[in-house]
């Protein structure tokens, strides 16, 4: 317990972001329904296919705000902005095979400049606040990605200096299919504002892809990759924020196909998805990262990797949707102020303070992943418990929890306790 708490506290900056500025969702172009997801968060990330804008000719004369395939980005991102969303675009240049780029350095810079000028914060439309140079360009060799990054980032900077520029998904160590090594951007700090990382709570690889609860000590990379990037950042790019732009859990009502790549795939229940997404968000807040985006917004209930990760299923809310909307309603205007307890065998408890500096809420839960229930005594120095409610899983109001005695009943679903001093 002491080691876990020490690690959490070492990584805590002076002031945390408000939860409303921290929690985001991954959407996808014309499919995303901003009004539906507005109760959950105000930050959204789009997988923006560069190929839609350029077609197969990377030197195509761009005609923003319309894509070459006739999608109107002003309409798409304008509808997101109208619902209060802050939009980050992952500019997926890798949707065009590397061999098909006519002149990477020239064409990437032209594209970046045009995109930023059309949609950045300084533009008349002001629809996009950040842009990532690629998503997971693992098929590009490291030298070619560095060329792409330098060129597109320079174009983005030239087009609108106020647009935040982010890297693709990074890893401390060697590049692989889903992330590029931090070495690809080392020394290019002037060209980017944000370091980007993806992380999933994968306990087992192929053929099960089994995931676990966020506090599971057997998970090495889920929080480990984040801590490694934080440490690298502190040494090589101090002050640069880190965004976790993908994390999530698959939950399907169906069984996987008996044959094929996903025959032994293992998902989680809808209830676990809700619990583990909320708890992941809370645990991530204890680290020195600035944002965390859930993958994914919607799914079609397919039993395979990433195919049932939505917080809605065919645009109908899952339990995770209701749990996250309640989290936003409860703590959206609060920031983490204290790690009260971080014992993976007993209790996680975090204190949040409202932006007015007066109101406080303690979020507490059982972090074992086994369905364990227990009682936890609220420390007297945190104040007197006024009222509490349990994380909901449906449209029904959150259940009230009796905490008058100061004993907090812990379950896998967090309880939110209002306290007064």
Number of domains: 2
Look at the helices and sheets and give the structural class. Answer: alpha/beta
What is the count of β-strands? 19
Mean pLDDT: 95
At CATH's second level, what is the architecture of the largest domain? Answer: Alpha-Beta Barrel
- Gap from first CA to last CA: 27 Å
Helix content: 25-40%
Corresponding CATH superfamily of the largest domain? Glycosidases
The oligomeric state of the chains shown is single chain
Secondary-structure map:
Blueprint: H1 2-10, H2 19-22, E1 23-27, H3 34-37, E2 43-49, H4 50-54, H5 73-82, E3 86-92, H6 104-119, E4 130-133, H7 142-159, E5 164-171, E6 180-181, E7 194-198, H8 224-236, E8 242-247, H9 270-284, E9 291-294, E10 298-299, E11 312-313, E12 316-317, H10 319-331, E13 334-343, E14 347-354, E15 360-365, E16 374-377, E17 384-390, E18 407-410, E19 415-420
Verbal overview:
This protein has 421 residues and is an alpha/beta fold. It has 2 domains: 17-331, Alpha-Beta Barrel (TIM Barrel); 336-420, Immunoglobulin-like, CATH 2.60.40. The chain has helices at 2-10, 19-22, 34-37, 50-54, 73-82, 104-119, 142-159, 224-236, 270-284, 319-331, and strands spanning 23-27, 43-49, 86-92, 130-133, 164-171, 180-181, 194-198, 242-247, 291-294, 298-299, 312-313, 316-317, 334-343, 347-354, 360-365, 374-377, 384-390, 407-410, 415-420. The protein has an 8-stranded parallel beta barrel, surrounded by 4 helices. A 5-stranded antiparallel sheet has the order 13-14-15-19-17. Helix 6 packs parallel to helix 7. The longest helix has 18 residues, at 142-159. The radius of gyration is 22 Å and the shape is globular.
């Amino acid at each position: 317990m002491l080691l876990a708490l020490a690690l959490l506290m070492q990584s805590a900056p002076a002031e945390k972001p408000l939860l409303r500025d921290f929690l985001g969702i991954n959407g996808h172009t014309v499919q995303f329904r901003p009004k539906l997801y507005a109760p959950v968060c105000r930050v959204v990330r789009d997988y923006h296919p560069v190929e839609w804008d350029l077609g197969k000719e990377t030197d195509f004369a761009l005609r923003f705000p319309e894509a070459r395939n006739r999608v109107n980005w002003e309409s798409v991102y304008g509808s997101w902005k109208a619902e209060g969303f802050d939009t980050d675009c992952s500019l997926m240049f890798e949707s065009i095979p590397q061999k098909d780029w006519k002149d990477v350095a020239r064409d990437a810079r032209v594209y970046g400049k045009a995109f930023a000028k059309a949609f950045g914060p300084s533009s008349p439309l002001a629809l996009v606040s950040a842009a990532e140079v690629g998503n997971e360009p693992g098929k590009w060799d490291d030298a070619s990605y560095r060329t792409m990054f330098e060129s597109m980032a320079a174009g983005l900077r030239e087009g609108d200096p106020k647009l935040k520029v982010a890297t693709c998904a990074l890893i401390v160590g060697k590049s692989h299919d889903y992330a590029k090594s931090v070495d690809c951007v080392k020394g290019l700090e002037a060209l980017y504002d944000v370091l980007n990382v993806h992380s999933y709570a994968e306990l087992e690889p192929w053929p099960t892809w089994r995931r676990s609860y966020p506090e599971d000590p057997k998970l090495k990379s889920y929080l480990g990759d984040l801590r490694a990037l934080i440490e690298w950042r502190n040494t090589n790019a101090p002050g640069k924020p880190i965004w976790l732009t993908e994390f999530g859990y698959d939950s399907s009502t169906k069984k996987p196909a008996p044959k094929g790549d996903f025959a032994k795939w293992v998902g989680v229940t809808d209830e676990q998805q809700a619990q583990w997404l909320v708890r992941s968000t809370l645990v991530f807040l204890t680290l020195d990262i600035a944002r965390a985006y859930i993958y994914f917004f919607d799914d079609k209930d397919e039993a395979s990797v990433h195919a049932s990760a939505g917080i809605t299923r065919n645009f109908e809310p899952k339990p995770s949707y209701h749990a996250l909307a309640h989290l936003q309603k409860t703590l959206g205007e609060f920031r983490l102020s204290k790690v009260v307890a971080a014992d993976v065998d007993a209790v996680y408890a975090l204190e949040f303070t409202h932006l007015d500096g007066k109101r406080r809420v303690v979020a507490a839960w059982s972090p074992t992943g086994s369905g364990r229930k227990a009682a936890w005594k609220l420390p007297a120095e945190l104040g007197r418990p006024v009222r509490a409610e349990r994380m909901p899983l449906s449209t029904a109001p959150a259940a009230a929890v009796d905490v008058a005695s100061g004993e907090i009943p812990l379950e896998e679903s967090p309880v939110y306790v209002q306290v007064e001093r």
